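Archive maintenance. Older records in this collection stored only the sequence; we are now back-filling the structure field for every entry so that each record is complete. The fields below show one back-filled record exactly as it appears after the update. Entries are processed alphabetically, and Ribosomal L7Ae/L30e/S12e/Gadd45 family protein is next in the queue.

ARCHIVE ENTRY
Title: Ribosomal L7Ae/L30e/S12e/Gadd45 family protein
Organism field: Candidatus Monoglobus merdigallinarum
Length field: 80
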Amino acid sequence: MESLKHRAKAVGVKQTAEAVKSGSAQTVYIAGDADSALTRPIAELCRTHGTELIYVGSKKELGRACGIDVPSAAAAVLKC
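Back-filled structure field:
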């Protein structure tokens, strides 16, 4: 998750889903405490597009890793 602070990223459910759909997401992170109704479609997109998917502890943790002061359910590191 350290790469989230220093690399181009998409943060939030909508931006992460768009990054996966467009093929620009390298790795997707989903918070374990996020509502599955929001994150399940992203997980399915990752499987369909062959994008690496990693579950992390919490939305607060993920937001902090992204360098933002609010919780985030999902984020993606973008391809260079």
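Update note: The CA atoms of residues 39 and 79 lie 21 Å apart. Strands lie at 9-11, 25-31, 52-56, 74-78.
Entry marked complete.
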